[in-house]
Amino acid sequence: MADAPAPHPAPPPATVADVMHPPVTTVEQNDHVAGAAYLMKRAGATALVVTQPQTGEPVGIITEADISHLVADGKNPNDVRIYQLMTARPTVVSTTTSIREAARVMTGGRFRHLPVMAGPGLAGIVDITDICRALLDALQAAQQPPPDPRPPAGRHLTPTSFDHETQTAGRPHRKQITESGRLWDSSA
Q1: Which helix (H) or strand (E) segment is 166 a member of?
Q2: Parallel, antiparallel, or unpaired for β 113-118 and 93-94?
């Protein structure tokens, strides 16, 4: 009686360190919002972490949505300082935070960005797209059937069989010597 194949092991849970964007672009709270918008465009970022100049510790976050709302309200980004617009004391996660937990934090707080800390320092940032992509990848991996340990149909290889494949004139050429000593040649 053959043993049932071992269950397909699930991949280890991913952490935000696996999907974060380092290095993160930062700004200081006394900079103008127009400068932040320029940095976002240059960095291809949708959010910037506002840091304390002396410590580099995050004190806020400013997003493209914040800037869009400012402009929609008829204000000039050159006349507004980042501290007037930023979200102060942003929620942060550590590099060891699981993707699932980051998703919970983001949906619970209605955040689209999370600064990622490594000890006392800023390590990167994750956004909702990074988290969704990681969750979708994990879901797809979980739905993949486990590999079949049996040889393909029509082939009867045993541990004592010989299986050799070469290229002949650009075509695959396979030879097998089975347990019974018979030679099978795919080119014949």
Answers
A1: strand 162-168
A2: parallel
DSSP-derived pairing of the beta strands 47-51 and 26-28: parallel
Burial 138-176 (b: 16+ CB within 10 A, else e): beeeeeeeeeeeeeeeeeeeeeeeeeeeeeeeeeeeeeb
How far is residue 25's CA from residue 29's CA, in Å, rounded to a whole number?
13
Q: What is the pLDDT of residues 104-157, one digit of tens each?
A: 999 999 999 999 999 888 999 999 999 998 988 888 887 877 777 766 666 555
Evaluate whether 176 touches 157 at the Cβ level (below 8 Å).
yes
Segment 128-143, tens digit of pLDDT: 999 998 988 888 887 8
Question: Distance between CA atoms of 125 and 113, rounded to whole angstroms?
Answer: 7
